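Query protein
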Amino acid sequence: MQIGLRRARNFLSIDFSILMKPAILIGPSVLIGISLLAGCSPNEVTEAGKPTLGGQAIHTVSNSKVMPQEYLRNVFARYRDAGSYRDKGQVRLQFMENGKPASRTAPLGVWFYRDLIYLRAYDTRLWSDQEGLAAWLVDPSTEHFDSQVLRLPPLGPRPKLTSLFSDPILAERVSAGLAGPPPQLEWLFSDQPMKALFNPKHQFSFGDQATVDGGGCQSVHVQANADRYTFWIDTKYGVIRQIDLPPIAIPSEPNQPTEKVTLSLELVDATFDAPTTTPETNSLPKKPKLVTRFIPLPPPAPPSILGKPFAGFELLKQTTAGVEPTRPTVYAIVYLANDQGSLVSATNLQTWIETFPPEWKASLHAAAIIHPSVKDIDAKTLAYLHDQVRLPWLEEIHRSESLPPGFEPGNLILVDHTGQIVWFQPDVSPQSLPALGAIAADVHSGVDVPQRIREQSEQERAAYKTVLKNEHNEVVRQGLAAPLQ
């Protein structure tokens, strides 16, 4: 299901933009603080047991003459007028996995009271109050973006969305999740919430009533061309408790039937009531590196195998026995296993090599190391695999335990004529082939590619550390040196 999930994210970032992108992405007007409809002022907080909806009493809409689009507009107006709002929102992706229902969730929650805003959006955390703004990333794969913490001066109460997400990397991370950026922020801070949703061509209708997250809710359907969005609105307190998004059909594997994947935004414990505590922020990096802008991370250190001898070189040379190239041979080796990713890498490498003229093929030789799992597949599938991957199969190298450490199925290495590993990449895609060709040309020209890569890496990391130091100095200069706890 991994492939399907990645594709789902790509679809969602486009198909659901009408619903999930805030005003900073769908229009230039994001003026805040002027109420266009009757209701609470921005400084008022709804008391529990005194629900309002755009200045009107909330009731079951089956007995009301209000039109569904106006009902939904009034709901958004209530958010815009609110002085307090919080939820434990999450995005839920539902699909079938091994014939059984499965789901994945990611946080997408907002906490707002007076001048305090706390956002949990996927791996992003943002805190803004009278002391300033702090944002950080909860991403163990990058050591939490190298523990960088964005620090900006105070933005004031009800800040503009463009101010909250003025940092490009922050804006990209918040927008790149399953359902895009949190729409709650647009409902709260945009002067025209969900403007694109109210397209005259879209059809609005009331749907069923049901209990969602413990509250009695009325559903409102929005038909936008072929897609339907359903808002579940608590009829007592006027909060949106859930949004159901259109299902999407994606193929789980090549040549397999499509699967229906559904997406919903669950606004758990949503309330306009004034809080009695502040939200917990225990995910802040222990040793934060303060910056006034997120600094792109330097590339990871070069793989340790670069410059090391390839233990299976003697076996590899046997595949070119009798060939007399005009220049030293460079070997391109892909690791083939019984999985789709490594098959794609192998066929991409093969297609690329087949376009070479004969004299180039003699000096750039491709082969596939075969994982033992390939021998476990049935004879018919094995014959099909042989037909698809016509590169020389190197089965003895795996059995002789000559693989370099960290070499996984789908990976590729280049080995020069002396048996030294000079290049590594995690997979072979059409986009990676130009760089692969350039590296092979450098090796043919006698360039010490591993040494050049190490020197470039050292220079990039030194430059990155210098930028971090300058950023810290700027944070101190602005009087923002103490991070929020």
